[in-house]
Design brief:
The chain has 7 helices and 5 strands, in the order αβαβαβααβαβα. Strands 2-1-3-4-5 form a 5-stranded parallel β-sheet, sandwiched between helices. Helix 3 runs parallel beside helix 4 and helix 4 runs parallel beside helix 6.
C-alpha cells in the first residue's frame, strides 16, 4: 500500500468515541459541533466550566478531552492537574485549546501529560486531523507538542 493509499484508507475509517469539550464560549462550542457533523460516530459532551468538566470526565469516561485554558472557575492548567490520574491511569488524551501562543501554563500542562496544544482560532483541518489522532490512539503530532530538550 502506498502512502497515498494508506492516507485515503485512513480518512475513510469512521471515527467512534466520545469527545468532551470544556469551553465556556458558546460560539466555540458551536464551531466544534459543526465540525463533528462529519463524524456521526463521535458523541460530543460539553462542560461550561472546569469543575463540570472534571466531573464529566469521571462520569462519562470520554475518549478525548478538548480543553480551553481560560475558564470562568479555574484555569485549564488546574483542570489538567486534577485529571492527572485519568491521564496517567487510562491514557486520557487531553488537548489544550488556547488563544495564547506558547505560555508557561501550556508548558506546565504539557508536562503534566496533556496530549497536544492547539492555538485558536481553531483550524478545521487541524481539528479533523487531531481528532483522528486522538480517537485512533496515534502518537501526538510533534508540531503540537513542546520541543524536546
Amino acid at each position: 500500500m502506498t502512502m497515498i493509499d494508506a492516507s485515503a484508507t485512513d480518512a475513510a475509517i469512521a471515527l467512534q468515541g466520545t469527545l468532551l469539550y470544556i469551553e465556556d464560549e458558546p460560539t466555540n462550542v458551536a464551531l466544534v459541533e459543526a465540525a463533528l457533523l462529519q463524524h456521526p460516530g463521535v458523541r460530543l459532551v460539553h462542560a461550561g466550566s472546569g469543575a463540570e468538566g472534571i466531573r464529566l470526565v469521571r462520569t462519562e469516561q470520554p475518549d478525548f478531552v478538548l480543553l480551553d485554558m481560560h475558564l470562568p472557575d479555574m484555569s485549564g492548567l488546574e483542570v489538567v492537574r486534577q485529571l492527572n490520574t485519568e491521564i496517567a491511569a487510562r491514557g486520557l488524551r487531553v488537548t489544550i485549546l488556547t488563544g495564547d501562543s506558547l505560555s508557561m501554563d501550556i508548558i506546565k500542562a504539557m508536562s503534566l501529560g496533556a496530549y497536544e496544544y492547539w492555538v485558536k482560532p481553531l483550524n478545521l483541518k487541524l481539528f479533523q486531523d487531531g481528532l483522528r489522532r486522538a480517537l485512533t490512539g496515534r502518537k501526538p503530532d510533534p508540531a503540537r507538542r513542546l520541543p524536546a530538550r
